[in-house]
TrEMBL record:
The keyword Disulfide bond does not apply. GO terms for cellular component: cytosol. Residues 297-769 form the Glycosyl hydrolase family domain. Residues 247-266 are annotated as: Disordered. PANTHER family: PEPTIDE N-GLYCANASE PNGASE -RELATED (PTHR12143), SECRETED PROTEIN (PTHR12143:SF39). This is Alpha-1,2-mannosidase, putative. Transmembrane segments: none annotated.
Length: 779
């Protein structure tokens, strides 16, 4: 399959044959997006067709000779060029294999179906190789030519997709619906074929977020949503069939059966699906829609989002327009073509979530498993909240550029909490409480939204339940179900925590006592800020005081955060490179995770100069060379959320020029174009949001506030146009990566931070220098 002119232009840009943006002035923002960035290594992105915040995402499910796995997180890995279908749902950058979703893989197959596809446990027959030379990915559209001779061209709306499937002449034309084969398996599935009306419908009952995880055991292998789909064709269906496990039923039209949630040989050979055939050489247009509520909901979504005269081109054009509207909320000028591609793709990845889960009529599936409607004043229900990751950068990015979506998302999370006995889960997938990771990121998220000016949600009701979650113990707080990794309690052993003023590692019922303490201290500080803004002075004082509990896991003898036992003793033996007492990170990384009290942390380390010197060693090797990726557990890890804010700490440590050089080094050497352009799993836009902020020269200071830290912008100029808000302009003059001076709205800005009032609009004018300066070192 040969790529059209617009894709060839994008490929030319990616090859860096354009050295300035002037040669590409006629291109829109969407033309600078490369959805393949992050699809290699551990980026865990997917390249398929989706709309901004879309429910549906049409993208490959790859295979490495095991039908119960993809060999990749979230369905796609650039170096795996064999697929067993195109799935309807995906998650951007979740950090586990196989990840989540990947519902209803659909395989165009140029051959007769002569055996059960489920019996093909190694995907030797019912799968196809492909070449990246025959792949074209742009925002809202995905085209792929398969080695089996079928070419596919699919465009997506928010809840639907339309595609042309062109079969080779002289070969049978089959289309397989592997209904039960979600990434993590399924409890049940059903497939129904209506040949006379050229339609296939069905559903899959699934969930099991990160079902292969070792930590969490089998606690996460459970169902929490049913995805319904309807697919309609413009060509006559000439044959049908279904299968269940190893049994093929030619001519069949109805089938049920799930796979279970085991892996490998314990699941292989189980499952159900169906297929339809068309005349050899057919070019079939398929229209498909999904719903988490009902088949009727999917059909309403299809009617609403795809007029009968829609074509792949018209839908792709409409979705590209929608993407341009979102991407144009942050426009940059100047810089190289590669910098523009890296930046715009980061915007794209940051705007893929949260994801719509409500139908066009406002119905959605609640966390109680029942249908609900959106609240009065709420536009839509959103989900997919990787809280532990996103509260550090992505939620601030969302609040900055799409405050109304942020408010709808805040209301969505509150709705789920009300349906979940008042509990805010830390990692919500669709309507499921997965409990993944540690801490209470919902508190930091909602408090941050409010501090950044988001108001279109029930913030008083949300505050009351978040405060209650942080202060009232629950029975599950003494359970170890799901630990480590997916501990069921959102505030483990809370009674002991508020007594000890830290989470004792030996009785915390959490992933790690030191990590839990640091996370809860950030969350409580954020609740304190939230309370203060609401005029709740008693709660503000209480929770701000709890924000200082980090001090109780800082060991002055070792100089690191360290887990403690309930009797007050330190957990030994201690190794700063170890993750004992921590969650997916070492003591060396977590020690810096005190964004709410950087000056206090510096004092504990012996003062700001001493802390800055120590931070130098976090980013460099013994010879002073940069060590920004792959340096091991004692060094900075740009893929590790607890320390992604560390480059910005130099500001408060009195050496802001080091923030400027460290951030610029990361932007220039760790991020880039091509499939390996992300440093690690995108974590639902977190890594991408970090890059966007870094390239703009601003970064959120503390969860629960609207303050922004400053660094040197990458581009000569940028304009942020928040939806419904006043523009924010950032300009630079001079060259270099160091700040000579800054003016805010024409007045000298001598501080290394700006307060939340800047979010209401203004201008930051930077003058840069080739050498370090003293700007911002004294406030």
């Amino acid at each position: 399959m040969r790529r059209p002119v617009t894709v060839a232009i994008a490929a030319t840009l990616l090859a860096s044959t354009l050295t300035t943006m002037s040669a590409a002035a006629d291109l829109s923002s969407a033309d600078f997006v490369d959805p393949l960035i992050g699809s290699a290594g551990d980026g865990n992105t997917y390249p398929g067709a989706t709309a901004p915040f879309g429910m549906l995402a049409w993208s490959p499910t790859s295979t490495r000779d095991d039908q119960t796995s993809t060999g990749a997180a979230n369905g796609y890995q650039y170096d795996t060029t064999r697929l067993r279908g195109f799935s309807l749902t995906h998650v951007n950058g979740a950090g586990c294999n196989p990840g989540a979703a990947g519902d209803v893989p659909i395989l165009p197959f140029a051959g007769d179906v002569t055996s059960s596809p489920t019996a093909d446990t190694t995907d030797a027959v019912y799968a196809s190789n492909f070449s990246h030379a025959d792949e074209a990915a742009t925002p809202g559209r995905y085209r792929l030519g398969l080695q089996n001779g079928v070419t596919t061209d699919v465009a997506a709306t928010e809840r639907t997709a339309i595609g042309t499937l062109a079969y080779p002449q002289g070969k049978p034309a089959s289309l397989l619906f592997r209904t039960s084969n979600s990434l993590n398996g399924s409890e049940d599935a059903e497939t129904h074929i209506d040949a006379a009306n050229r339609r296939v419908t069905g559903s899959v009952l699934t969930g099991a977020f990160c079902g292969r995880r070792a930590n969490g055991g089998v606690n996460n292998r459970k169902s929490y949503y049913r995805l319904y789909f309807t697919a309609q064709f413009d060509q006559a269906v000439t044959g049908t069939g279904t299968w269940k496990d190893a049994t093929l039923q030619p001519g069949g039209t109805d089938q049920t059966g799930g796979e279970g949630y085991a892996t490998g040989k314990d699941r292989a050979g189980r499952g159900s699906g169906g297929y339809v055939t068309f005349a050899p050489g057919s070019k079939v247009t398929m229209r498909i829609a999904i719903s988490y509520v009902s088949l009727e909901g999917a059909e309403r979504n299809l009617r609403a989002e795809q007029p009968k005269k829609s074509t792949v081109d018209s839908v792709a054009g409409g979705t590209k327009k929608a993407w341009n509207a979102e991407l144009d909320r942050v426009n940059v000028a100047g810089g190289s073509a590669n910098q523009r591609i890296t930046f715009t793709t980061a915007l794209y990845h940051g705007l893929q979530q949260p994801n719509l889960v409500s139908d066009v009529d406002g119905q959605y599936l609640g966390m109680d498993g029942k249908p609900h409607r959106v609240e009065r004043g709420q536009d839509a229900q959103y989900s997919n909240f990787s809280g532990w990751d996103r509260y550090r950068a992505q939620v601030q990015f969302l609040a900055l550029v799409e405050p109304r979506v942020a408010g709808n998302f805040a209301q969505s999370l509150y709705n789920y909490a009300k349906q979940n006995d008042g509990v805010w889960d830390r990692w919500v997938h669709v309507n499921g409480a997965t409990h993944v990771m540690t801490g209470d990121p919902s508190a930091a998220t909602i408090a941050t939204f409010y501090a950044m000016g988001v108001r279109n949600f029930d913030y008083r009701g949300a505050f009351d339940t978040l405060y209650r979650q942080a202060t009232v113990s629950r029975p599950e707080g003494l359970q170890d179900a799901g630990c480590p990794g997916q501990c069921v309690s959102q505030r483990p052993n809370l009674t002991q925590y508020v007594t000890s003023h830290y989470a004792p590692n030996d009785v915390c019922h959490c992933w790690g006592g030191a990590a839990e303490t640091l996370e809860d201290a950030v969350a409580d500080s954020a609740i304190g800020h939230f309370a203060e803004l609401l005029g709740r002075t008693r709660e503000a004082a209480e929770m701000r005081a709890r924000g200082a509990y980090w001090r109780n896991v800082f060991n002055p003898d070792t100089g690191y955060a360290q887990a403690r036992n309930v009797d007050g003793s330190w957990v030994t033996p201690f190794d700063p490179a170890s993750d004992r007492g921590f969650a997916q990170g070492s003591a060396a990384a977590y020690t810096w995770m005190v964004p709410q009290d950087v000056s206090g942390l510096a004092d504990a380390m012996g003062g700001k100069p001493a802390a800055a010197t120590r931070l130098d060693g976090f980013f460099h090797d013994a010879s002073g060379n940069w060590q920004l990726k792959g340096g091991g557990p004692l060094k900075y890890d740009p893929t590790n959320e607890p320390d992604i804010h560390a480059p910005w700490l130099y500001n408060e440590l009195g050496q802001p020029w080091k923030t400027q050089e460290t951030v610029r080094q990361l932007v220039s050497s760790v991020y880039g174009t091509g499939p390996s352009g992300l440093p690690g799993n995108d974590d639902l836009g977190t890594m991408s949001a970090w890059y966007v902020f870094a390239a703009l020269g601003i970064y959120p200071r503390t969860p629960g506030t609207g303050e922004l830290l400053l660094s040197s912008p990458l581009f000569p100029s940028a304009v942020i146009r928040p939806a419904g808000g006043a523009p924010i302009r950032i300009t630079t003059s001079g060259s270099g990566k160091y700040i000579q001076d800054v003016r805010r709205d024409g007045r000298p800005q001598r501080d290394w931070k700006v307060d939340a009032s800047f979010l209401r609009g203004g201008i930051l004018a930077f003058r840069l220098s080739e050498t370090p300066t003293a700007w911002g070192s004294v406030t």
